[in-house]
Amino acid sequence: MRVSTRSRPARTLGVGTIALSVSLGLLTGGLGTPQSASAATSSSAVATTQVFPQTSATLSQSGITVQAAASKAAKSKAAANRIMTEAAKHKGKKYRFGAAGPKRFDCSGYTMYVYKKAAGKKLPHKANLQQRYGKAVAKSQARPGDLIIIRSGTRGTHAGIYAGGGKMWAAPRTGKTVTKQKIWTKNYVVRRLV
């Protein structure tokens, strides 16, 4: 193998790079004996400096991406748990048209109140308007804490909070109280707010 003898500017290696290079045998002489850090200007050391930091940066960036995704998922799950806890607190409170809590609720007033109190999310006081908020999610991907909007055609007519198992927390109608009820129709949409 022919080694170029052209002069190159000296590069500074960090202690971690030298230690890793030595442990990987990249800064070796004759029979595999590690050389001192002064060998940093040799061809193999320069090549190591050019390649290793890029690999290190890539690993660091992907590690940060994975950590960020895990952190976001954990925050989302915690927010969904707060929503479910808040939704259940109001079990048994009476329905009243136009009411938005905390003593009485209509359906959209209930979802509006729970999302604001538990997750700081602002929703309008109409089921039809609430269906425009959050991220659309397939019914098969619904998670507890997601917003459910029952529809007539494409118009939202009833709102609730998905509780899992095909049920939702809702303030159903006059004469009823906040309860966990079965989603009785297939004409509904799921919106994820957290």
Fold topology:
Layout: H1 15-23, E1 28-29, E2 33-34, H2 43-89, H3 107-119, H4 127-130, E3 135-137, E4 147-152, E5 155-164, E6 167-170, E7 179-182, E8 188-192
Antiparallel strand pairs: 1-2, 3-8, 4-5, 4-8, 5-6, 6-7
Helix pairs in contact: 2-3
What does this structure look like?
It is a single chain. The chain is of the alpha+beta class and 194 residues long. It folds into two domains: 15-63; 90-192, endopeptidase fold (from Nostoc punctiforme). Helix content is 38%, strand content 19%. The chain is built from four helices and eight strands. The chain has a six-stranded antiparallel beta sheet. The protein has a two-stranded antiparallel ribbon with strand order 1-2. It is globular, with a radius of gyration of 30 Å. The protein starts with 14 loop residues before the first helix and ends with a strand.
